[in-house]
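Sample entry (245 residues):
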Amino acid sequence: MQIGVDSFVAAPVDRVSAVDPARHLSELLEAITLADEVGLDVFGIGEHHRREFLDSAPTVILAAAAVRTRRIRLTSAVTVLSAADPVRVFQEFATLDLLSNGRAELVVGRGSFIEAFPLFGFELEDYDSLFAEKLDLLLKIRENVHVHWSGKHRAALTGQGSTRARSRTRCRFGSVSGGTPSSFTRAGVLGLPLMVAIIGGEPHRFRPLIDRYHLAALRAGHSPGQLKVGIHSLGYVAENGNGGR
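Predicted structure, serialized as tokens:
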């Protein structure tokens, strides 16, 4: 088992509890450095495009953390691929992987908020097709320097090179699912590691969906050893059950 921390870099904007953004990001980098020093396995940064979060550019935060840490893996939690360009996403994480000496991980999903769609000019009715198409392209870029690809939501690629900053170890890819059965099946068919986003509800209710993921992966011919499953959920840490310190 591996244990890590994810942060959405929440920053309240009301007058009572508002925080200084620069100080908040500085303290976040200190927290990531401490997580590395005490032996946590991974630290993830989310992606949101709303006032109460400071994680609109997660790869920038992770890159800053990369030069301050030595061992901890640095991951997105989650990259909203539906509203991003897969070529650019790959370039950023390949560069992050070089900066961190092979510690970058890219976890992609559709996000639990929808503000990225109108912000970047996408339609909500394309919610599913955007993700499926862009994930297909991202996986092709991972395997090939020069990609031939065409789709509905993005201009075609006709053999252009995706990036010169391809990592030496190739950053690990994963897919996040928040409860839609089809998303568990898709991750399994593709043989991608799975991150289960438990935002609400009891964790045991997700077991049948994880079983669906494993079954789909095995039917698609993937080996059990590559079927890694992680859980992202709210947590509480204290020295005793009363919240004492």
